[in-house]
């Protein structure tokens, strides 16, 4: 079978590799669609601190079940041919985080495509307990459930409520999906970025307002959107230092500020704003126990993620699509790899 392999930082190829065989309790899957995420790009760039090489990237996918564990009692209601997606995080289950139920922040978590091989391969083995069925769903939308879970977890962390005014900083895939998750709770969501094409898409997706930060300083956005009151919730989805300080400035008194963008650069800010405004600053990492709810939201058309998949390329073009993403080319929000149909 074929797999996209990052053989070393900066090097990616479509390789012929042996087909995997499922272990006990694992299903064999045929991958249908897989999304390219920022962390896959980091793996290619060599800036992903946890990646080792060679590595098959990918942790956002939809798939069809080809084989189930032989013991029928282990099949847990699944059938061959079922359309599924999978939770790509593998917590150890024993660390202090896991023992308190914070499995998404496991101290020894392994994420597919980073610490272990991921979904950019034709066949994939996964434990049944990681799989979620999505009968009848568009498999292209199903590949967006994992990034949607990141935004939804952040919205849950920030306790976003109906009628609240929220600002999302960063209109990439995660920022957009955070906006959709907050809108599903009835929040009024503004979104800010520096790329006009992304802001135009955000407006079509139902943003209450958009702000181009290349032309509007954050104070002006706060004035326009809230009459100067500030936002009840601010989500930071870029990881850039300037975006963190923008978030502090945009927050209303008593606001929740949730950090999703995983920045590496240091931020300099005066901490007194945290006291003066009595801010709650919340980190948000991965997601947990949320896939079924999101599959239901998308299947029932309460949330439409389809406009976010702005380009679909065949598997053969996957290495080039990864290189393009690493070069930062284009206005694409989410690029999906399409795998060939069953022979
Ligand atoms: Zn753990």
Task: Characterise the protein shown here.
- Strand 13, helix 8 (241-250) and strand 14 (251-259) form a beta-alpha-beta unit.
- The chain has helices at residues 38-45, 96-99, 139-142, 145-157, 173-184, 196-204, 218-226, 241-250, 272-276, 291-299, 318-327; strands spanning 2-8, 11-16, 26-35, 60-67, 83-86, 89-90, 110-111, 123-127, 131-133, 165-169, 188-193, 209-212, 231-236, 251-259, 280-283, 309-314, 334-338.
- Helix 1 (38-45) packs across helix 11 (318-327) and helix 4 packs across helix 5 (173-184).
- The longest helix is centred in the middle third of the chain and has 13 residues, at 145-157.
- The protein folds into two domains: 2-144 and 305-338, Quinone Oxidoreductase, Chain A, domain 1, CATH 3.90.180.10; 153-283, NAD(P)-binding Rossmann-like Domain (Rossmann fold, 3-Layer(aba) Sandwich), CATH 3.40.50.720.
- The chain is α/β, with parallel strands linked by helices.
- The structure holds zinc ion.
- Residues 91-95, 97-98, 106-108 line the site of zinc ion.
Helix count, DSSP H or I runs of 4 or more residues: 11
- Calculate Rg over CA atoms: 20 Å
| N/C terminus separation | 12 Å
Which percent bin holds the helix content? 25-40%
Proportion of residues in β-strands: 25-35%
Q: What is the fold-level CATH name, i.e. the topology of the largest domain?
A: Quinone Oxidoreductase, Chain A, domain 1
Identify every distinct bound molecule in the structure, by name, code or SMILES.
Answer: zinc ion
**What summary fits the major beta sheet?**
7 strands, mixed
What is the total number of structural domains? 2
**Alpha-beta content class:** alpha/beta
Shape: globular
CATH architectural type of the largest domain: Alpha-Beta Complex
């Amino acid at each position: 079978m074929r797999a996209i392999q990052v053989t070393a930082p900066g090097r990616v190829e479509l390789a012929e590799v042996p087909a995997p065989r499922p272990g006990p309790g694992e299903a064999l899957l045929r991958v249908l669609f897989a999304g390219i995420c920022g962390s896959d790009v980091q793996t290619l760039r060599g800036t992903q601190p946890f990646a080792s090489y060679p590595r098959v990237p990918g942790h956002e996918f939809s798939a069809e079940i080809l084989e189930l564990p032989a013991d029928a009692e282990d099949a847990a209601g699944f059938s061959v041919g079922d359309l599924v997606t999978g939770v790509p995080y593998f917590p150890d289950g024993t660390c202090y985080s896991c023992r308190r139920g914070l499995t998404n922040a496991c101290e020894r978590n392994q994420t597919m495509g980073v610490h272990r091989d991921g979904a950019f391969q034709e066949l994939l083995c996964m434990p049944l307990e990681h799989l979620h069925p999505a009968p009848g769903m568009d498999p292209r939308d199903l590949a967006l459930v994992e990034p949607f879970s990141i935004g939804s977890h952040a919205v849950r962390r920030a306790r976003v409520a109906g009628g609240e005014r929220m600002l999302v900083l960063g209109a990439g895939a995660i920022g957009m999906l955070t906006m959709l998750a907050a809108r599903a709770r009835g929040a009024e969501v503004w979104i800010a970025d520096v790329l006009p094409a992304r802001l135009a898409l955000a407006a079509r997706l139902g943003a209450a307002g958009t702000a181009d930060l290349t032309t509007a300083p954050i104070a002006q956005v706060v004035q326009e959107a809230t009459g100067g009151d500030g936002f009840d919730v601010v989500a930071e989805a870029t990881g850039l230092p300037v975006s963190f300080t923008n978030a502090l400035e945009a927050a209303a008194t008593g606001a929740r500020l949730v950090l999703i963008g995983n920045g590496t650069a240091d931020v300099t800010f005066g901490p007194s704003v945290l006291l003066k405004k009595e801010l709650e600053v919340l980190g948000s990492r991965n997601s947990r126990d949320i896939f079924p709810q999101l599959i239901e939201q998308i299947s029932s058309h309460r949330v439409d993620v389809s406009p976010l998949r702005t380009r679909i390329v065949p598997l053969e073009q996957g290495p080039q699509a990864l290189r393009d993403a690493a070069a930062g080319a284009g206005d694409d929000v989410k690029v999906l790899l399409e795998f060939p149909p069953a022979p």
